[in-house]
Design goal:
heterodimer, A: 201 residues, alpha+beta, four-stranded antiparallel sheet, two-stranded antiparallel ribbon, elongated, B: 451 residues, six-stranded mixed sheet, 20 helices, 15 strands, 37% helix
């Protein structure tokens, strides 16, 4: 999957600058590098927001930042790679369907944490870490995994569904114009250093 | 100047090959060593080892390696579910528990020293994936064009932590300079290696630190005085670069250093002269013959040494089980032909039968003496296809690190065939292809109806 970032206007601007420099690949590194830095700062900022459940942090957005790397850069084009498939789900949304059958029952259900202690944890890890036994209430079309915690009432830990549909996250990427601006600024800053280098010291 | 640019800054959600390659270079190594002990191991070995402090289990180390590769390669399981952090943690914890690695004392459970705990498995995942991505960033950033577009890095906080280390003091202690209070240095500066607990010039620089690097542009570097407008940067020349320095740490080791490493890692370490590397070859690799050095499988265990002393009268403490290409060639050439082996009342031996040797030596294989020969003995083990292998081994008391029990030959029979016992009684149970002489008769072979 490839997301193209630069509009016609930005491309024209970069082409014009590209004609002025000795090292067009460096220019593209600079331009794409500014875009990458914008992306990384955006992801780092998002990582500062705790998860909605209030559970232990898994630093999802920090991992996305780490996975944001420069790809191939030639004299003609530059690529930035966000090497984490979970990002595509955030960006575009879509339906996730349970694929792996549960051991024993063979049920195919997603386990969606609703208890903060279950955030980022599979049910087996939850059981090991908390020592609580999980009880499944439901059937092939869904249900919940719940636990007794000393009292007579069950606490719901996970909701179980065959599939869920997630909406796209409108803030997965920084605003498009911020990325365009970063691309232009990267090229213009690089051009400025080349003009400086050509001036007698 | 005449190049027409068609710039398309693209974002592509693909696996990173450099990160995958970096991780693939690691050999799973089990050891009791704690983190502080591992820090004393040459960097060349650490960089090529998949290890985790205090974890000896080969099954756990292999799972760490394959699990991380599954994530980086964006692999899916047989049902089509994507590998991810939570799957890695759940499966690793399960394997570690099955290996009996959960602390017996409940008070020690759930701590970072408990390999079955989420905190430990999560730390392994975080550190290893960050290292793989950190290396990718470092490698791409040291390309000539990248180096001149972004000559420096700034050390920045990329994730919040409840308890933060004092990175400013650590930065200055590593020889780092401040630019307007910012921790910035050229990418080629040795401060990055000195800053790192792991000795590598890329992040992470410590466990669970939340710190990372951010590119500093050419313009900022000029403004801050790190470079002049005329400065042209080049990656370090071969021989002076980080990789060359790392390789040098595994060469020219003293005998005492080699012995110490060998004590810690046993046959997992291959010693060639004064150079060491991890043993990543398999029996199939040795059979193919790319590397003539014998393959050490494992140390003779105390239990095995005691049993073998009864049989041979020799003390095999610190000996290694070993196979070499000449023995494997002999087995395949002399005992791999179906027609000839059938005429001997045996089954043909193939490479898959030999690949089972390391596992056989770990489990309940049977040892048997060779009458009149205290330098040789037999090991009998079951094969997954229902066959039974009789292998002949020779004690080779070399000096120092080269005390080996070496494979001589292997024959294969149907499991439980009476002729295995019959053969054992022969004076020279290792097979030589002597024309006209059969170790057993075809009639004996037909005792088992499956032959």
């Amino acid at each position: 999957m490839i997301i193209r970032l630069t509009s016609g206007e930005t491309r024209n601007r970069l082409q014009a600058i590209g004609k002025l420099v000795d090292h067009p690949r460096e220019l593209l590194f600079s331009s794409a590098g500014y875009v990458r830095r914008e992306l990384q700062r955006h992801f780092a900022e998002r990582d500062r927001t705790p998860n909605r459940l209030g559970g232990k942090r898994t630093h999802f957005w920090g991992a996305i930042r780490n996975a944001t790397q420069m790809g191939e850069v030639t004299d003609r084009q530059a690529e930035i790679n966000i090497a984490d498939p979970r990002f595509a789900q955030r960006l575009y949304g879509g339906t996730i369907t349970a694929k792996t059958p549960w051991p024993g029952s063979g049920l195919k259900l997603l386990t969606i944490p609703v208890d903060p202690r279950a955030h980022g944890r599979r049910a087996s890890v939850f059981k090991r870490e908390t020592g609580l036994q999980l009880i499944f209430l439901g059937g092939p079309k869904g249900g919940e995994l719940a636990a007794f915690e000393g009292g007579p009432d069950l606490t719901t830990i996970y909701i179980c569904k065959p599939s869920i549909t997630q909406e796209p996250d409108p803030n997965a990427l920084p605003p498009g114009d911020a990325l365009e601006e970063a691309a232009k600024l990267g090229a213009e800053d690089y051009l400025a250093t080349q003009i400086q280098a050509d001036q007698p010291s | 100047m005449t190049t027409l640019l068609l710039l398309m800054a693209m974002i592509s959600i693909e696996p990173l090959q450099d990160a995958i390659d970096k991780l693939s270079q690691r050999t799973p190594v089990g050891s009791q060593l704690r983190s502080a002990d591992w820090a004393q191991v040459p960097l060349a070995l650490r960089e090529r080892a998949q290890f985790s402090a205090g974890v000896q289990s080969a099954a756990v180390m292999n799972r760490i390696q394959t699990g991380l590769l599954d994530v980086l390669q964006q692999n899916r399981n047989e049902f089509g579910a994507l590998s991810d952090r939570s799957k890695f943690i759940a499966e690793l914890a399960k394997i570690a528990e099955a290996e009996g690695l959960a602390p017996k004392d409940p008070a020690l459970r759930g701590r970072v020293t408990d390999i079955t705990s989420e905190i430990r498995t999560g730390l392994i995942y975080r550190t290893q994936t960050e290292m793989a991505y950190g290396y990718t960033n470092w490698k791409a950033g040291n390309d000539t064009a990248a180096l001149n577009a972004f000559p420096a890095w700034e050390l920045v906080r990329v994730e919040e932590r409840v308890k933060k280390r004092d990175w400013l003091t650590r930065w200055q202690g590593a020889g780092g300079r401040l630019y307007g209070g910012r921790m910035i240095a050229l990418k080629t500066d040795l401060v990055w290696e000195r800053l790192s607990r792991f000795g590598t010039p890329w992040p992470p620089f410590d466990f669970n630190s939340g710190m990372g690097v951010e590119d500093v542009s050419r313009r900022e570097c000029i403004d801050l005085g790190l470079i002049t407008p005329q400065t042209r940067l080049a990656p370090p020349a071969a021989g002076e670069d980080f990789n060359s320095r790392v390789e040098a740490t595994a060469r020219g080791l003293t005998n005492a250093e080699l012995r110490s490493l060998k004590d810690d890692f046993g046959p997992q370490l291959q010693v060639q002269g004064s150079k060491v590397q991890w043993e990543s070859r398999t029996i199939a690799d040795v059979a193919r013959g790319a590397d003539p050095a014998p393959l050490s499988i494992q140390l003779v265990s105390q239990r095995q040494a005691a049993a073998l002393k009864d049989i041979t009268g020799q003390d095999l403490d610190r000996y290694e089980w070993s196979v070499d290409k000449s023995a494997l060639d002999h087995v395949i050439n002399q005992h791999g032909d179906a027609a000839r082996e059938t005429s001997r009342g045996q089954l043909p031996v193939n490479l898959a039968d030999l690949e089972g040797l390391p596992q056989a030596l770990l489990t309940d294989s049977t040892f048997r003496s060779v009458p009149g020969d205290s330098t040789r003995f037999e090991v009998i083990y079951d094969l997954p296809d229902g066959g039974e292998a009789l292998s002949l081994w020779e004690i080779r008391p070399g000096r120092g690190l080269k005390k080996r029990v070496s494979l001589v030959s292997v024959r294969k029979y149907m499991n439980q065939a009476p002729h295995v016992t019959a053969v054992a009684g022969s004076p020279a149970p290792h097979v030589r292809n002597v024309p006209g002489i059969l170790n057993i008769t075809p009639e004996q072979a037909r005792i088992n109806p499956n032959v």
